[in-house]
Design brief:
The chain is of the alpha+beta class. Among the domains are: about 210 residues, CheC-like (Chemotaxis protein chec, 3-Layer(aba) Sandwich); about 60 residues, SpoA-like (Surface presentation of antigens (SPOA), Roll). The chain is about 35% helix and about 20% strand. The chain is built from nine helices and twelve strands. The strands form two sheets. Strands 1, 2, 3, 4, 5, 6, 7 and 8 form an eight-stranded antiparallel beta sheet that branches. Strands 9-10-11-12 form a four-stranded antiparallel beta sheet, with no helix packed on it. Helix 3 packs across helix 6 and helix 3 packs across helix 7. The longest helix has 28 residues. The N and C termini lie far apart (about 130 Å).
Length: about 400
């Protein structure tokens, strides 16, 4: 019985075993996520949200469709995880910064989304997505990303108050399963990297995930710039405007002792007169609006103008205009056609007009509608019989 352990000793042994086994149960994901602090993730998400927000406006102008890019989600990722989660094949767009920032990032788009965007940019309705991805699709998406990331660089330039410029993006079709070994991957993708995920919606055609990938050190440098700018904005004191200089009135010259008494008497008399003059005015100052007097108001009346007859309309001068030639046009009817329909005209094509059979036709003089009439035949020529004169 002396060799048996007490209850306290047994509890201590079990607690010691738990402490030793706890590190063995810790997954590697916690270590990966610790590469970025929560503050750094929030800053990267805010930067990406601002830059991709301006890119959405640019993409809207290119595809003429409503573009919505959601708030991003920032995480640490490995290539194996990405290849298992994302649809394959996909399109990689590599963007490098050549001024203002030192680093690069990669955008991933689904192959079908690239075809839809390219078709919209070329004037289609986004339904032409059959066939393989061609160089034309890659060229179109590269141009779209060039303008989008250009707008993003402008937003970053305003945020960091420095000029930021990018190199022309390059697009390529990538099968994620074929590059797991790292042969076609960028160097930073062979290690843990920052993954920023967006939900991208373009009209009713696209509702998928857009992924942006950063090197971890580049993400940390963005965070430092973001924090330094915030600290500079907070620590910069407000410029103090110096108070305007107040001009002091010149001091009066000293008065001789003999004249001091008479001047004091004169000042007292002047002050008494001024108070006597101001007191009735202050007493009579009203504290309410004075009553409004009754005023007779009548509408204004103007003298009637006598019509002046223009000399051109007088009978004795109308003869001067009788020999002026005017162009008379008889319009049978009108219609509207598209350019394609007009190009399809051929002998025998019937063009329907906007006028019913038997309806009066229009008579125009110098393009002005003056009368209605009906078509008649005079020997071998057409004529018009006026049935109504438009006043």
């Amino acid at each position: 019985m002396d060799g048996m352990l007490s209850q306290e000793e047994i509890n201590a042994l079990f607690s010691g075993m738990d402490i030793e086994e706890e590190p063995a149960n810790t997954s590697g994901s916690g270590t990966s996520q610790s590469l970025l602090t929560p503050e750094e993730k929030d800053a990267i998400g805010e930067i990406s949200n601002i830059s991709l927000g301006s890119s959405a406006t640019t993409l809207f102008a290119l595809v003429n469709q409503r573009v919505n890019i959601s708030t991003p989600t920032v995480s640490i990722c490995r290539w194996e995880e990405l290849s298992n989660q994302y649809e394959r094949p996909c399109v990689f767009i590599q963007i490098s910064y050549k001024e203002g920032l030192d680093g690069k990032n990669v955008l991933i788009l689904q192959e079908k989304d690239v075809k839809i965007i390219a078709d919209l940019m070329m004037g289609g309705d986004g339904s032409n997505v059959e066939g393989e991805l061609s160089d034309l699709h890659l060229s179109a998406i590269s141009e779209a990303m060039n303008q989008m990331m250009g707008a993003s660089s402008t937003s970053l330039s305003q945020m960091f108050e420095t000029k930021i410029d990018i190199s022309p993006p390059s697009a390529s079709l990538v099968d994620l399963s074929d590059v797991v070994s790292g042969g076609d991957m960028d160097m930073f993708l062979r290690e843990e990297f920052v993954k920023v995920s967006f939900r991208m919606e373009i009209g009713d055609l696209i509702d998928s995930e857009l992924i942006q990938m950063y090197p971890v050190d580049f993400a940390k440098s963005l965070y430092k710039k973001f924090i330094n700018d915030d600290e500079a904005a907070v620590s910069t004191p407000e410029p103090v405007t110096p108070a305007p200089a107040v001009k002091t009135a010149p001091q009066p010259a000293p008065v001789p002792q003999q004249a001091a008494a008479p001047m004091q008497d004169m000042n007292m008399m002047a002050m008494g007169q001024m108070q006597g003059m101001m007191q009735p005015q202050m007493m009579a100052m009203p504290y309410a609006m004075p009553p409004v007097q009754d005023v007779n108001i009548s509408p204004v009346q103007f003298q009637a103008f006598q019509p002046v007859q223009s000399p051109l309309l007088q009978t004795e001068n109308i003869d001067l205009l009788l020999d002026v030639p005017l162009e008379v046009t008889v319009e049978l009817g009108r219609t509207s056609k598209s350019i394609k329909e007009i190009l399809d005209f051929a002998p025998g094509t019937i063009v329907e007009l906007n006028r019913l059979a038997g309806e009066p036709i229009d008579v125009l003089v110098n393009g002005k509608y003056v009368a209605k009439g009906e078509v008649v035949v005079i020997e071998e020529a057409f004529g018009i019989r006026v049935t109504e004169v438009i006043k």
